[in-house]
# Entry
Amino acid sequence: MFFDKPNARFYVVRQQLTNLPRSLGTEPSGVSVFLVTLAAIEQIVKNVNTVTRVAKITTRAGMSSENKSPLLERARNIVPHLDTDRHKGQAGRIGIVGGSLEYTGAPYFAAISALKVGADLVHVFCPDAAAQVIKSYSPELIVHPLLDSINAIIQIEPWLERLHVLVIGPGLGRNRQIMQTVAELIKICRQLQKPLIIDADGLFLITQDISLVKDYYGVILTPNAIEFCRLFGKDRDQIMLSLGRLGAGVTVIEKGLNDRIYDSLTLEKYECPQGGSGRRCGGQGDLLAGSLATFYYWALESKQEISPAMVACFAASTLTKTCNKYAFKLKGRSMTCSDMIDQIHPVFDDLFEHKKD
# Structure
């Protein structure tokens, strides 16, 4: 069954209609409301039917033709056009919370990937010991050495409202003081209804206190195989039940040979196509987390998806595995994550870019 609950399709439609006034941003009257509502219903029903078709295909055997898959087409549709009337920031302002004395590469990989996919601005919030190193990697990033300061929350909180999506975890480490600060940041993000992606050591924090994300509508967790078992156990038959305990609106992408997306809104599992290569260099998860942040903002901003997180996860998974494939073809066994990041442009151009007729 596509849905585990009866009438769940109608539940999804009602949820979308409930959000209409907020998405419109105005209170139009009479005929305008009627016409806008009709158009929205038509798009929502179309997307629900697409999800149904995709679920039947993906859970059986993956996509037979990667470039023609319905999910990939939906991912293309969320990509904003490069119009000349847009201003800086409209394509995404992303925040990365992470980094430590030992791990400066992870937040950089996540941040630069978000930028190269197409976000306009990326802020990195890190401890003081990591800041200068991260700044030296790229002048494109806005680096805040605040994460281990005494007044970290007071200093970081004003920035949160400016950011569209926050990624928590790359290179974070497990310093107790910083973990407490990050836990407080997650609570503030919940109050702000901030879309959130939690990765790497951020997931370790969640295993210590699952209540941080319980019923957090709009949070995406990105565990690898080991992190996934820590969160949900080893019994594959109980995964959806365990996910359900987190509440509706929490999405999980389990990274592996076939990345799996668990959508708590539709109660369905999506199995992404295989890709990449046998070269498993460090940093690929950071590339995925950063690109996911940009895709996620675009999916939310498009206001055409019943499950923006699912489409964003699929897009980020496809991009990451294809970057691996392209880079491996060039560098083989010597391939590193930096080589994969160099392939973001050609991969994006081949798979996601709007083509002129």
The first strand starts at residue 93 and ends at 97. The two ends are 40 Å apart (CA to CA).
